Amino acid sequence: MPLFGELAVERVAPRLAHLLNLDAEAWTLPGAEILQMAYEVGEATRALLPRAMHPAIPPYATWLVTRYPESPVGPFTLAQLRLMGRAGAHPRGYVLGAVASTPEAARALADGWGFPAAAGAVAVQRYHDRVSVSVTLEGDRILDAALVDPQPISGADVQYIHSVTLARLDEPAGSTPTLVQVDPHYTFHRAERGRPSIARFAAAAWNAEGLAPVHPISASFATCDTDLPRIRFVMDPEIPVVRGTRRIR
Amino acid sequence: MKFGLFYELSVPRPWTRESERTVYNNALEQVKLADELGFDQVWAVEHHFLEEYSHCPAPELFLTACAMLTTQIRVGHGIIVCVPEFNHPIKIAERTAVLDLLSGGRLEVGTGRSATWTELAGFNANPDDTKKSWDEFVRCLPKMWTSEQFAYEGEFWSMPARTILPKVYQRPHPPMWVAVTSPGTELDAADRGLGSLGLTFGGFAEQEKKIAEYRRRIQLCTPVGEFVNDQVSTVNFLYCHEDDQVGRTVGRKMADTFNYLASQLTSVREAFPGRSYPSLGLLPQLRRQATGPDSGEQAGEGLALGGPERVLRALKRWEAVGVDRVNFLLNTVEAIPQTQVLESLRLFAREVMPAFAESKPAGGER
């Protein structure tokens, strides 16, 4: 069998988002701009991945920054760090940390889908030769990164891997750490690819102690219509998803 | 229709000092038996860094051992990754020629370009360039095998005039193939007069359509070699057992394990968006078949798993679809004990193989 993650869920449980139920209504999110940067990150990251999941070979992470000009909580920008892996046979990005540009968005994303989202400043800027992002949390700059030298590609060439969040779910038996699959749809309007460049990354602020970007893979910047759909699957973080997945709807 | 073996050489964790050696030794024993039973060919992949899934980075060495242990079975070196960071074309020409000599003209050469980020990044190769370098390599190889002197100036490699030695044993040269996983690659094969080395499992309707298009297209090809190899090969799992239910159950476990391991690989497209890898190729199909809605009976369409009658029916269907050769995966991470694998081979040779007539050779004088 492939290797599994080694996250001690009990250690991170106190800081997990709290889901009252699995019934968040879907959001329609037109005209989103998504900047994704991918780096290989080293074997030590297995300690960050839930035991239900397999690490990617090689281990890699994506920094996913999305500007949503329209949403039920108004315009906002969301920056996520995702450790990529497999839920059974399926590629998934486990969300380690997230910063939303408005308190309303941070709260709604945590309450509805279990995102470990804090409110902070997320600034995306488009230059002639790059698309840059900076993220500030509680006065500290925790990410300075960019897509360098963007070149047009087809939107059909871009693939975004679905996410899983880890949250505490209130159930009759108590509050249980639960993996939540977040599986948006995308309709692409344009896309570019370039090189990723990370100048500053504060791992601890992203709940990612030991994770460091060591080998660049790619960066993409796409405009698309997307959504946050209703939750379809949840998983027990402690057992392989093949045995621990529950379909919600 | 002809039958062969196909090796990824998967090794289960935990990796002990003996586990990899055992997998290689078991494979060699299987090949020796297959040669005695009348199987036509044995193929070995070239993969790097693919934990558990494939510990076969030097297939030419494994195939040399196969050739030394056997007398009839052909040895398929494939696919060779035609990317300069992996293999210099001169070395490909030289080592394939040596293998052809040592095997007495039993070599088949499969070509391809790798489909995983894991491998390409491991060699620091640019995924955008692999299709182009593959194209250069396959056009050069036949000339390197057959020309007295060879010189070349290309985008991905160049050399001044030299005599590349030794020359291949087969005349004019070994049959050449292309690995076909991504949609459309079968057309690349056809345009160059190369055999279609299909690496997808199951799905009669889709394969029939692809094969028909390949057949139509190859009639108009400009071959890169001295002859057209218009053969269509595909891979399949094989576990044949007297008890159909046992054959299906044990075989499905092997197939599911293979699909599950394959789905762990990081495809190029997953990590590196671009036109060079327009689809996920084989992986989505394997993921669905491992755990998705296609798992179970539906995914078993066309798989050679079960009793002899069921296996025969599946293969007759492939023959009707237009497949010339089927290469079998016999095991995955040693999930099936070696004695049972050997018994499956014997049963297949006894009960199934006689029902298939001789088919045309892929070309080349042996």
Report on this model:
With 249 residues, chain A is mainly β. Chain A is built from three helices and 16 strands. In chain A, a hairpin with a 7-residue loop joins strand 4 (60-68) and strand 5. The mean pLDDT of chain A is 96. Chain B has a single domain, classed as TIM Barrel. In chain B, strands 1-2-3-4-7-8-9-11 form an eight-stranded parallel barrel, surrounded by eight helices. A two-stranded antiparallel sheet of chain B has the order 5-6. In chain B, a hairpin with a 4-residue loop joins strand 5 and strand 6 (158-162). The interface between A and B is medium-sized, with 30 and 31 residues.
Descriptive key words:
heterodimer, A: 249 residues, mainly beta, Acetoacetate decarboxylase-like, 16-stranded mixed β-sheet, 3 helices, B: 366 residues, alpha/beta, TIM Barrel, 8-stranded parallel beta barrel, two-stranded antiparallel ribbon, 12 helices, 16% strand
- Total of DSSP H or I helical runs spanning 4+ residues of chain A: 3
CATH topology value of chain B: TIM Barrel
The mean pLDDT of chain A is: 96
Total helical elements of chain B: 12
Q: Give the CATH architecture of chain A.
A: Beta Barrel
Main structural class of chain A: mainly beta
CATH architecture label of chain B: Alpha-Beta Barrel
Compact overview of the structure:
Chain A is mainly beta and 249 residues long. Chain A has helices at residues 9-12, 103-113, 241-244; strands at 17-19, 27-40, 54-55, 60-68, 76-87, 90-100, 117-119, 121-126, 130-137, 140-153, 163-171, 174-182, 186-201, 215-228, 233-235, 245-247.
Explain the layout of strands and helices.
The complex is a heterodimer of chains A (249) and B (366).
Chain A: H1 9-12, E1 17-19, E2 27-40, E3 54-55, E4 60-68, E5 76-87, E6 90-100, H2 103-113, E7 117-119, E8 121-126, E9 130-137, E10 140-153, E11 163-171, E12 174-182, E13 186-201, E14 215-228, E15 233-235, H3 241-244, E16 245-247
Parallel strand pairs in A: 1-11, 6-7, 6-11
Antiparallel strand pairs in A: 2-4, 2-14, 3-5, 4-5, 5-6, 8-9, 9-10, 10-13, 11-12, 12-15, 13-14, 15-16
Chain B: E1 2-7, H1 19-37, E2 41-44, H2 59-69, E3 74-81, H3 89-102, E4 107-112, H4 117-122, H5 130-146, E5 150-153, E6 158-162, E7 176-180, H6 185-191, E8 195-198, H7 204-218, E9 232-240, H8 244-262, H9 268-271, H10 283-291, E10 304-306, H11 308-321, E11 325-329, H12 338-351
Parallel strand pairs in B: 1-2, 1-11, 2-3, 3-4, 4-7, 7-8, 8-9, 9-10, 9-11
Antiparallel strand pairs in B: 5-6
Helix pairs in contact in B: 1-2, 1-12, 2-3, 3-5, 6-7, 8-10
